[in-house]
């Protein structure tokens, strides 16, 4: 019994990375995915910020889910999410100004990331506290992983760097990968690749 | 625990409580981070001043003065002095013609008006394109660099507009905005320091 529960929580956590990965499988949260991933570190930063918001909002919503009348649940969820996003924004600005400089513009957009609202609506409002936190953590880290992979690909092809470390001279980079169309192209190929792997696995 | 029913009273009450709690927690968070945010901004400003002027031993932050530009922007001037001799002025300048709105930079001018160095403070340009301005205009390659140039003698606009500076690849608008901010700084500096004359006597252009 105990063991079974443990197994369930493990699959609850790990589903976010592969089976139900927000970016590669569910295609949720495309706006930040395409917008911030011009470099690997931006992708990682955005992913971790989203993870924090996701875990906290899942936690709070799992706690108060019975108190919220059904008809006003969406505005209630949004207020909770927006609060945590603003907290992240202020904390980042105060303690990691360098990261805030490159991500600042996109942080408020976490509010409208359908991944966060989607998990609140589809999972946290129906499950208990522990499962909700684990779900938020798994989904968030899966999202961070996807963004980091996409960011690395774009940074490497576009500007010849990886996490800011020069791999080859920038002049040989394909500029299009830094631009918005490159985001779509890279994401498309990554999804195709992941689907292929999933089929054979 | 039973699910709360969707009556009007319940709905109004729940939303009221939730927004109230959210507002209160944000308020206290704001109080908590206000000082670190201000400190981080100040540290950035100090670092930027150090970056754009030669070595000094006064406190430019204390001798700061403000001036309005023609365009109505308020510019901050930080005079850097060594042994009471003006060695350069760090100017916090801005423009609103950026691709994403305002662009704020700190540019250091020698007393004769030539550019020592610059530092980008705030902008909302496209990541990977316009954001390259932080190093582009001080990289000594082709006609990219504006370091050592004097706006009185050099036409500091992008080559597309007939100037002599190479714009950032695929970010001409951001480049124009950047150079515009430099121009605003130089013009306002001249207006407020009529003694400083164009070109100057000392040929310190490197």
UniProtKB/TrEMBL annotation, chain B:
Superkingdom in the source lineage: Bacteria
Compartments where found: Cell membrane
Enzyme class, UniProt record, top EC level: translocase
Keyword Calcium: no
Assigned keywords, A-Z: Cell membrane, Electron transport, Flavoprotein, FMN, Membrane, Phosphoprotein, Translocase, Transmembrane, Transmembrane helix, Transport
FMN-binding domain: residues covered: 98-189
Pfam families, per the entry: FMN_bind (PF04205)
SMART domains to which the protein is assigned, alphabetical: FMN_bind
Membrane topology value: Single-pass membrane protein
Cofactor(s) the record lists: FMN
Signal peptide: none
UniProt keyword annotation of Phosphoprotein present: yes
Modified residues (FMN phosphoryl threonine): 172
EC number, UniProt record: 7.-.-.-
Stated role: Part of a membrane-bound complex that couples electron transfer with translocation of ions across the membrane.
Family stated for the protein in its record: Belongs to the RnfG family.
Subunit structure as annotated in this protein's UniProt entry: The complex is composed of six subunits: RnfA, RnfB, RnfC, RnfD, RnfE and RnfG.
Name listed for the protein in its UniProt record: Ion-translocating oxidoreductase complex subunit G
Annotated organism of origin: Carboxylicivirga linearis
């Amino acid at each position: 019994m105990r063991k079974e529960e443990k197994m369930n929580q493990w699959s609850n956590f790990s589903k976010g990375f592969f089976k139900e990965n927000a970016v590669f499988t569910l295609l949720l949260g495309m706006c930040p995915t395409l917008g911030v991933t011009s470099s690997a570190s931006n992708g990682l930063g955005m992913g971790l910020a989203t993870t924090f918001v996701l875990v906290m909002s899942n936690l709070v919503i799992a706690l108060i889910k019975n108190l919220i009348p059904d008809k006003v649940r969406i505005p209630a969820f949004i207020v909770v999410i927006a609060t945590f996003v603003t907290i992240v924004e202020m904390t980042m600005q105060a303690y990691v100004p360098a990261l805030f400089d490159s991500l600042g513009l996109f942080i408020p957009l976490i509010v409208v990331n359908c991944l966060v609202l989607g998990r609140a609506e589809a999972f946290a409002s129906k499950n208990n506290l522990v499962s909700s936190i684990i779900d938020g953590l798994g989904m968030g880290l899966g999202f961070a992983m996807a963004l980091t992979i996409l960011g690395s690909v774009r940074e490497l092809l576009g500007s010849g760097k990886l996490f800011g470390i020069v791999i080859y001279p920038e002049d040989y980079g394909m500029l299009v990968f830094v631009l918005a169309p490159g985001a779509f192209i890279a994401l498309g190929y990554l999804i195709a690749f992941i689907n292929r792997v999933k089929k054979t696995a | 625990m039973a699910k709360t029913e969707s009556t009007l009273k319940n709905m109004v009450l729940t939303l009221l409580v939730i927004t109230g709690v959210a507002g209160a927690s944000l308020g206290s968070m704001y109080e908590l981070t206000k000082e670190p945010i201000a400190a981080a901004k100040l540290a950035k400003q100090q670092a930027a001043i150090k970056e754009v002027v030669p070595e000094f031993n006064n406190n430019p932050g204390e001798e700061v003065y403000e001036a309005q530009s023609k365009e109505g922007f308020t510019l901050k001037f930080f005079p850097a002095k060594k042994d009471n001799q003006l060695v350069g002025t760090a100017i916090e300048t801005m423009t609103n013609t950026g691709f994403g709105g305002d662009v704020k930079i700190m540019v250091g001018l020698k007393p004769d008006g030539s550019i020592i160095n610059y530092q980008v403070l705030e902008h909302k340009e496209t990541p990977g394109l316009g954001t390259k301005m932080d190093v582009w205009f001080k990289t000594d390659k082709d006609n990219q660099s504006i370091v050592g140039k004097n706006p009185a003698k050099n036409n500091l606009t992008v080559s597309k507009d007939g100037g002599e500076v190479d714009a950032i690849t695929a970010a001409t608008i951001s480049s124009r905005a950047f150079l515009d901010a430099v121009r605003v700084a130089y013009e306002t500096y001249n207006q407020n320091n009529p003694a400083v004359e164009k070109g100057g006597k000392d040929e310190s252009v490197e």
